[in-house]
Amino acid sequence: MNDEDQIIAKAQNGDSVAFGVLYDRYSRQIYRFVFLKIGHVHDTEDLTHQVFLNAWQNIQNYRFQGFPFSSWLYRIAHNAVIDFYRTRKQHVDIEMVAEDAVYDFPDHEESIDRKNQLETVRAFLVKLETDQQSVLVMKFVNDLSNKEIAGILGKSEGAVRVIQHRALKQLKGLIEEHERANH
Amino acid sequence: MNEQIIKQLKELKAITPREAFLKNSKTLILASGRSQTPAFSLRYFFKRPVFGALTFAVIVLLVIVTGFWNVLPIAKPAVSSILNPADLSKEFNDLTINIQLKEIKYDQAVNQAIASAVVEIGDNKTKHLNRSLLESEAPSLNLNDSESDKINEMLNQVIF
Asked: What are phi and psi of A106, to 5 degrees?
């Protein structure tokens, strides 16, 4: 039993300190995943809080099935975002979001330009289909493997590769169209 | 171009939550507590509307069944006889025979009446039903006879 398995076992026995360790380990990447799909900081905070509250309340139901604990968290987050879109149907406004997001750039001199550039990418990312967003964010932003992504989305690894290819192609098209319109 | 987009996607790792949010969220979640019992918990059970509805349905069913079994001893003889296949079969057979007998008796009575009527119609001696006899008597009838009027009046007094 590795380190994380022991922590999970303690959390399942009601050890809140152990769950706190898991929270610290995964909260940022879950937050990023949710924010890149929703685009509003306050909604992202609400949803992220709900994801971890849900996980803590139901951790006794977690069973290792070949995927790490983070996959279980991503599945909860993925479903939470789907429910969010079903009930709220938010539309993303680039100008509004640019003031909301918090970026942690190591070089502050480049921060404004980089932030604007990244905000453009993020805004177009939100325009993709839900699964396409999920694959790109999990793969390139949060560094999950195709196998983990497949487990989270309930698809085959082959399907994940196809979704990734189509998502990149579509995102590229949207960015090029935007650049043509602005020049 | 894909490499450029992938590079920009990777740079989105710079997105980070507010530290104040992380601290508050973690505190609230860990303070919320969690049921220590695994899988089944009464509190969890009754919080779910569907389980509450199922429980109510089971209780109602138990009440009905209990009430039925309390009434059952009193009604048992009647119920038993009603439900006993042998008794039911005997009753049915008796019923069928009775119906048949009654039908036969009725048919016999009707046949007798018809037979009597036919005999009377064909018999010249039965004066009141013989058509040819009635026709032969018609001319001799005096409908304006005053005596007939008196007789009619007396008959009316008797009848009414």
From this structure: -70, -30
* ipTM for this prediction: 0.84
Query: pTM here?
Result: 0.60
Cβ-defined contact of A141 to B39 (cutoff 8 Å): no
Q: Look at phi and psi of residue A14 and say left if phi exceeds 0, alpha if psi is from -120 to 50, else beta.
A: left
Is residue B29 less than 8 Å (CB to CB) from chain A?
yes
Asked if the Cβ–Cβ distance from B36 to A14 is below 8 Å, we say yes
The phi-psi region of residue A129 (left if phi > 0; otherwise alpha if psi is between -120 and 50; otherwise beta) is beta
Determine the 3-state secondary structure of B17 from DSSP. Answer: coil
Q: Distance from B55 to chain A by nearest Cα, in Å?
A: 23
Of B14, B34, B36, which is closest to A105 when you measure between CB atoms? Answer: B14
On chain A, the residues whose CB falls within 8 A of the CB of B21 are 45
CA distances from B149 to A121, B128, B144, B145, B160 (A): 125, 21, 8, 7, 16
Tens digit of each residue's pLDDT, chain A (183 residues): 679 999 999 999 999 999 999 999 999 999 999 999 988 899 999 999 999 999 999 999 898 888 889 999 999 999 999 999 888 755 544 444 444 556 665 555 556 777 777 888 888 998 899 999 999 999 999 999 999 999 999 999 999 999 999 999 999 999 888 888 877
